[in-house]
Amino acid sequence: MTEPSAGYEAVIGLEVHVQVKTRSKIFTPVATGYGHEPNTLTDPVVLALPGTLPVMNKAALDAIIKAGLLLGCDIAPVCKWDRKNYFYPDSPKNYQISQYDQPLCRGGAVEIELPGPARNVMGGHKKIPLTRIHLEEDVGKLNHGATDSLVDFNRAGTPLMEIVSEPALHTAEEAFAYLTSLRATMIYGGISDCDMEKGQLRCDANISIRPVGETELGIKVELKNLNSISFVRDGIAHEIKRQLAVVERGGTLVQETRDYDGESGISQSLRSKEMAHDYRYFPDPDLMPVKVDEAWKRRIAAECPELPFAKQRRFFEQYQVPYTLTSVLVWDKDLADYFEEAAKLSGKPQAVGNWIVNDLLRELGRSSSGAGRGLSPTDRTMSGMSPELQQSPLAVCRVRPAHIAALVQLVESGTVLTNAAKEIFVEMFGSGEMPESIADRRGLRAAPTDAGELEQWCRDAIGANAKAVAEFKSGKDSAINAFKGPVMKAAKGKANPKLVDETLRKLLAAM
Amino acid sequence: MPSDIFFQPITELAAALEAKKISAVELTGAVIARTRAVDGRVHAFNSFDEAGALAQAAASDARRTGGQARGPLDGIPVGLKDVIAVAGQPLTASSNMLANFVSPYDATVTRKLKDAGAVLWGRLNCDEFAMGSSTENSAFRPVHNPWDTTRVPGGSSGGSAAALAAGEAGATLGSDTGGSIRQPAALCGVVGLKPTYGLVSRYGLVAFASSLDQIGPFARTVEDAALVLGVIAGHDERDSTSCKIEIPKYRAELGRRRGPWKLGIPKEYFGEGLDPEIAAAVERAIAFYRHEGCEIKEITLPHTQYCLDAYYVIATAEASSNLARYDGIRYGHRSKDTTDAVDIYFKSRSEGFGAEVKRRIILGTYVLSSGYYDAYYLRAQKVRTLIRQDFLNAFREVDALITPTSPVPAFKIGEKSDPLALYLCDIYTIGVNLAGLPAISVPCGFTDRSLPIGAQLIGQPFQEAALLAIAHAYERAHDWGTRHPIL
Fold first, then answer.
1. Subunit contact A51:B85, Cβ cutoff 8 A
2. Which domain, by its residues, includes B70?
3. Same structural domain, B319 and B217
């Protein structure tokens, strides 16, 4: 949708900030959190009172090592800290502890899936290379009033990873797919919940255009405040259009930082290159470098989960389930695990997958204020992810994989009919009762079990419709359906359709 | 109770307290009375809390009565330089920026002193943010040297040195970034110890230059210094630059460690600019050690000439960043009638900081600036490595070095108006901070004008026990510490 016009291509690099989900802050043991009373998650260190010193929280280092391993980065042997000096009221020390020339992770890549030719067809995959990932501390938050501004330092000191991509993205769609995949990776790894509304994932985009075939980068514009994944896509698309328009009318682009307002869909300049900061980086003398040895990396590697795309490839291979199912199942680790457990119990992965993707997700969606889940990377509705999406309602869902497997078994064996099974599903979702038990209690089992009785109903039906018998005999297979209605009616709807079909064919063949 | 009890070493006071010859309340009362009597001429204190001190003393007496005394510091009035945090007490750094700031938390050394039962007594004047060598940079008032109140006490911990010399505390703590404990100790005739970098926690010390700052004691005797060091040293989870090492029983080690030692004389420390009376006094101290059977060896520290340059790059760079937090937003001085955040920064910092602090912030900002970093900061760090290597090379041949502490004795207040002239006061002390070594200044005589002279002993990293023993050997054979200023 945002392909640059003739002769030009866009080059996009993303800087993504991800808050690491640690219990305490990165340099002091005060709790992290969101939505608390202002300035309650603080202590002398957070407020940068005279004499306070930072001490590193190893859990934050664990998290970035895990992120690096998941994304295939080289992990530095030493974690070294620098000070980034600049004055801003949300920054208590007026320097930010960060990593400058020795980021903890270098290289690596984010695998993305581009939109396919249709929603139910898998799109192409590519790997977007990463420049680096480093760890730093988050700042506080300014709340501007009419006549004054207030600072809330609750967020200050929350561990924050900055994930920088190479300028290797070319469309807004690619940027969207990149963020979706990166976000899933972080959630999978338990590194962050990546709730953009809570600022747990934030994205800045560096965008330039250049004539196709040119290898040098054009004048770069940094786009800030892209606070939802669709705003990222829309903002980038808007900026590419803006740059092309400037070039087309013979203007020149300037290096600047622009603010994109997702609501109004317009951007405005914040500052030009001349006002760029000199951060006066230097090694933080308060923090000793920390060695990251092989044993540490091995310990973290053992905690690394399989990522969605790898899982999808394995699901294709191992379960022979289609893209329409994997594209839903693999984006939620709990859901994927749930599927695998049910598939193994039942041995019928496709049927299990269908129940999960169609019925279970529908019921879960209903029970969690209408939110959908298991969104695919190309889903257009992913903006403004609601918090419910983060918590897994699966964990509290009464329908366990054993229920699904049992239900599939009932249907496959013809013990219950599809419509009855749907009823059973809704009931067991509410109660957690096993499907066999519901079928028995509510009389939903396909009946009768008495083959003699069924055979008699079949004989009656055949006997009453000579025309259909003739049609069937002359080769019109569908004519057999004409007998099924009366049989079912006689069976009060509880006959096993598979058995009915078999019996009718046996009798017709004998005629 | 002897009338000059406020001049007695802690070891004797502790014995008197233990023998119940005096109470902590009486001792604290005597120190308060002495402070009231003399501090109008010395100005060692920025503030003191008499009721608080007496309450702490009463608690100490209660502990002792109940058989729960916590050791030799229990009940001893200890003064803290006004850059060390005490919960509920002002923490001004002798700056208008923090004139009204009260710390809500204790520094680690403060907590350790409290745990040892010390009576925390008053906030001691210093150069603003510990930047200076004369305590004339205090934003409130200069400290006067008790030996001659027209003269400076040295700095930056001038209040800590002067208070002790004037009998206003049993011991004091200071901080030493380039000589700020040792030089005022020398100029005031007391013992001053700068520990190895990383031995004492810096948590709760208002930072000047993080890679150089160390807290250390001022004391009347080497034994007192050993005693206080034993209380404040040790790893702190709140300071990741504090080292995890076994802390020796410094006081007990004094008696166990005997010479003779091998002592090095760095020739670069006896050159031009050294006051001849000081040179002679230090030579006599060297002669003492030689007489005691110590091997005296001239050694060289070839990069000494670069110490001052490297120091003023590294220290100011770190200071420019460390002092950025004083912005008028969360605490401290905020200018009135400001229009926006940037205006608050400019006006508050312009009004809150004194000239020397501004000078160092500007210099430090400059040396870290884009395009200058490699030429200044990075190069200074490389020089620093060479300076440390000089010392480590010397320690392959000798146990400790002996030098003058200060090139000059106490000078007149206002005499050195050129900042560079003042910077030269630290010429013999700065290398120790750059190398992270322990060093102690001990009294070694007086000038003709009865101004104290100090000798500096420099030890190997974390070898404070040896350093104290060497100093102790000298001190036992001399009686400089028994002389007191007349106020």
1. yes
2. 5-263+398-482
3. no
Based on the fold, state whether residues B210 and B333 are members of the same structural domain: no
Interface A–B counts its CB contacts (< 8 A) at 104
pLDDT tens sequence across A324-333: 999 999 999 9
> Residue B81 catalytic?
yes
Cα–chain center distance at A451: 50
B246 shares its domain with B104: yes
> Are the C-beta atoms of B124 and B165 separated by less than 8 Å?
no
- Of A388, A421, A386, A396, the C-alpha closest to A338 is A396
Q: What is the pLDDT of residue B248?
A: 96
pLDDT digits (tens, 9 = 90+) for A235-245: 999 999 999 99
Give chain B's contact residues with A (Cβ, < 8 Å): 83-85, 91, 93, 98, 101, 103-105, 107, 202-207, 209-211, 237-241, 317-318, 320-321, 324-327, 329-331, 341-342, 345, 365, 368-370, 373, 377
Which of B325, B349, B380 corresponds to the end of one domain? B380
CA distance B229 to B225: 6
pLDDT over 70 percentage in chain A:
93
Supply the DSSP string of A327-348, one letter for each residue.
Answer: HHHTTSHHHHHHHHHHHHHHS-
Q: Where are the domains of chain A?
A: 8-300, 308-442, 451-510
Cα-only R_g, chain B: 21
End-to-end CA distance of chain A: 64
Domain topology for A451-510: Arc Repressor Mutant, subunit A (1.10.10)
Residue B416: active-site member: no
Q: What is the pLDDT of residues B100-114, one digit of tens each?
A: 999 999 999 999 999
Residues of B in contact with A48 (CB under 8 A): 325, 330
> Considering only CB atoms, which chain A residues are within 8 Å of B382?
none
**Tally of CB atoms within 10 A around A322:** 15
- How remote is the C-alpha of A368 from its chain's centroid? 17
Distance to chain A for B106, nearest Cα, Å: 10
Domain end call among B326, B351, B380: B380
Nearest to B241 among A51, A94, A286 (CB): A286
Nearest residue to A114 (alpha-carbon basis) of A166, A168, A173, A71: A173
The answer to whether the complex's ipTM is over 0.90 is yes
**How many domains is chain B built from?**
2
**Do B325 and B466 lie in a common domain?**
no
Q: State pLDDT tens for residues A110-137.
A: 999 998 999 889 999 999 999 999 999 9
Tell me, yes or no, whether B390 lies in a domain: no
- Closest-CA distance, B84 to chain A, in angstroms, reads 7
Element containing residue B387 per DSSP (H, E): helix B379-394
CA distance B364 to B362: 5
Residues B89, B225, single domain; the answer is yes
User: For residue A370, is pLDDT > 90?
Assistant: no
- Domain annotation covers residue B327: yes
On whether residue B388 sits in a domain, the answer given is no
- DSSP codes of every residue in B410-474: --BTTS--SHHHHHGGGTTTHHHHHHT--EEEEEEEE-TT--EEEEEEE--TT-HHHHHHHHHHH
Do residue B344 and residue B240 come from a single domain? no
A493, pLDDT greater than 80: no
Residue B295, in any domain of the structure: no
